[in-house]
């Protein structure tokens, strides 16, 4: 299309945007709707109109042939985009930092007139006649030279007030002990916390009162939209564009649509020259400040007076993430090979979640309705474990499996590792008890943690936690090492050092929960899953599957009576017994 089409379209977009801004400001200042759904529809229509205008403005910018107008169009489009999605304050701060870093170069020293002006600026802005002291030049973090030009520094009266307060606080702290200063700071924090709590209570009371008023149609105050900071920025961008381009757009000449305008080229050249000179001006100002500061020190020394101290600003400590030492690939492969040889990193069998057989507790809702206890069955446990398997890819988690031997804990762990294609580490203190020492345990857990971090997603299964978090401490002959040492190393090396972003799942197994310190165990494993006892339906399904797989057994075999008799046996024992029952000799008989 021709440039004239997009020229006219851009003018229409500006007029529509100004009309939409007036409507938006009206909605922000006054309440128009009594129903929340109506307010949401009204606000959605405004945001949809912003999106439509943004698309039209972007199209005009893409087909614009006037190079000098591009900067103004981008400014308008940027503010409209911020109104919809972006936090403007963060973007402006980031752009500001980038702009300041770009102000670099090696040029000749500034002319004498500029140096004289910079010295006069220091005299006017920085020298405080009332206090006979020079304000320190702001650092780059405090704004640098830009804060001086914008006159953002405190006035002499403000600086003197802050200085007197600082000296009074410093003198009062000299007579106090470190403990008193600590308690005063703690008291101030407590007062701020109390005020914040009171304000929160007041806001809740006001919200409750407003909620009650909304029930009465005659007292309904109406819904208001939250005020937007970006609306003013759009107005400023439009005002900037109107100021420089309105009278040119009215001319409707070819230069305005496709070619260049000489005045804008001259202004851009001026701006670039000012940016280049600004670096030398800042350097000259700092040199002049050093000379004036040295002269001020000489004056105070000659008069035998004490020069005012600079106010020390306490900087907030930066939070530093703990950095783990990088391990080379060769070392990692050696550690993995060592763990495989020791039987800690295992190759688990192909296991599906459906292998943990059992039905849901279908009568649970009826029992809860009559205020009776409804225990979960294997189907409910399988559903809960499916959620755990799904969350493995989301990040680090710790879960505890509680149940007797042979109830299916290992089967669930294998299913989790198989579903997520994870590497499985199995740590059993009862197997390693003959070779465990404090130094050996420390190195072993370091190896497990390093390998788990390098082969994510991974799962670490710790068996027999009842011997580690026990109430009655077993003898060292039973474990080969003190359980306190094992607990301290496991909690320190595995449970605390892993980050939430790491795709590592730590699973604990416990068979005798009544013998452990439950508070410490639940602190280490916040989530716990209690595996149910083997019920009639599980044994019946196991027996029916066994009969179907072995054709030697008659089809009229009474599995129901046998399921009732075997109800007190656990699932693992029954499965192993049934598999070993039909030997070749018994099959021939």
UniProtKB/TrEMBL annotation:
Pfam families assigned to the protein according to its UniProt record, in alphabetical order: AAA
Single GO molecular function: ATP binding
Source species, domain of life: Eukaryota
InterPro entries reported for this sequence: ATPase_AAA_core (IPR003959), N-DRC_Component (IPR052267), P-loop_NTPase (IPR027417)
Domain ATPase AAA-type core: 399-521
Protein name: Dynein regulatory complex protein 11-like
Taxon lineage: Eukaryota, Metazoa, Ecdysozoa, Arthropoda, Hexapoda
């Amino acid at each position: 299309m021709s440039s004239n089409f997009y020229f006219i379209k851009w003018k229409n977009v500006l007029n529509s945007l100004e009309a939409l801004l007036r409507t938006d400001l009206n909605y922000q200042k006054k309440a128009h709707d009594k129903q929340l759904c109506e307010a949401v529809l009204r606000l959605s229509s405004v945001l949809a109109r912003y999106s439509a205008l943004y698309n039209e403005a972007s199209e005009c910018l893409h087909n614009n042939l006037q190079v000098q107008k591009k900067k103004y169009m981008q400014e308008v489009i940027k503010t409209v985009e911020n109104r919809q999605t972006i936090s403007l304050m963060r973007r402006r701060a980031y752009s500001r930092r980038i702009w300041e870093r770009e102000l670099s170069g090696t040029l000749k020293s500034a002319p004498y007139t500029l140096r004289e002006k910079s010295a006069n600026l220091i005299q006017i802005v920085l020298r405080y006649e009332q206090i006979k002291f020079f304000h320190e030049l702001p650092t780059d973090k405090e704004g640098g030279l830009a804060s001086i030009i914008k006159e953002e520094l405190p006035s002499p009266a403000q600086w003197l007030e802050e200085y007197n307060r600082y000296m009074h606080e410093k003198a009062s702290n000299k007579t106090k002990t470190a403990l008193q200063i600590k308690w005063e700071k703690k008291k101030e924090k407590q007062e701020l916390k109390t005020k914040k709590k009171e304000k929160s209570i007041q806001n809740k009371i006001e919200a409750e009162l407003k909620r009650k008023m909304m029930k009465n149609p005659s007292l309904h105050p109406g819904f208001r939209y939250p005020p937007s900071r970006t609306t003013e920025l759009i107005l400023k961008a439009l005002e900037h564009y109107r100021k420089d381009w309105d009278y040119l757009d009215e001319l409707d000449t070819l230069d305005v649509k496709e070619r260049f305008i000489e005045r804008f080229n001259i202004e851009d050249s001026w701006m670039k020259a000012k940016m280049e000179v600004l670096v030398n001006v800042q350097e000259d100002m700092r040199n002049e400040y050093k000379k004036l500061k040295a002269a001020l020190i000489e004056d105070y020394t000659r008069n035998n007076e004490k020069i005012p101290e600079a106010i020390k600003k306490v900087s907030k400590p930066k939070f530093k993430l703990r950095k783990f030492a990088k391990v080379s690939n060769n070392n990692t492969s050696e550690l993995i090979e060592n763990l495989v040889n020791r039987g800690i990193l295992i190759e688990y069998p192909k296991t599906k979640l459906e292998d943990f057989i059992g039905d849901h507790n279908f009568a649970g809702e009826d029992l809860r309705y009559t205020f009776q206890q409804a225990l979960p069955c294997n189907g409910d446990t399988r559903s809960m474990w499916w959620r755990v398997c799904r969350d493995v890819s989301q990040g680090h988690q710790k879960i505890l499996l509680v149940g007797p031997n042979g109830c299916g804990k290992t089967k669930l762990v294998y299913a989790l590792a198989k579903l997520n294609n994870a590497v499985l580490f199995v740590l059993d203190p009862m197997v390693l008890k003959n070779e465990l020492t404090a130094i050996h345990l420390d190195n072993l857990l370091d190896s497990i943690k390093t390998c788990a971090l390098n082969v994510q997603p991974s799962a670490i299964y710790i068996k027999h936690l009842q011997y580690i978090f026990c109430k009655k401490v077993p003898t060292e002959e039973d474990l080969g090492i003190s359980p306190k040492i094992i607990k301290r190393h496991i909690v320190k090396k595995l449970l605390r050092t892993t980050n939430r972003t790491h795709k590592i799942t730590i699973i604990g197994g416990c068979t005798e929960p009544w013998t452990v310190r439950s508070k410490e165990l639940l602190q280490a494993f916040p989530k716990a899953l209690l595996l149910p006892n083997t019920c009639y339906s599980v044994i019946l399904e196991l027996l029916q599957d066994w009969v179907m797989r072995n054709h030697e057994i008659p089809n009229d075999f009474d599995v129901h009576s046998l399921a009732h008799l075997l109800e007190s046996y656990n699932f693992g024992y029954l499965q192993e017994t049934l598999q070993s029952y039909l030997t070749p000799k018994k099959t021939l008989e």
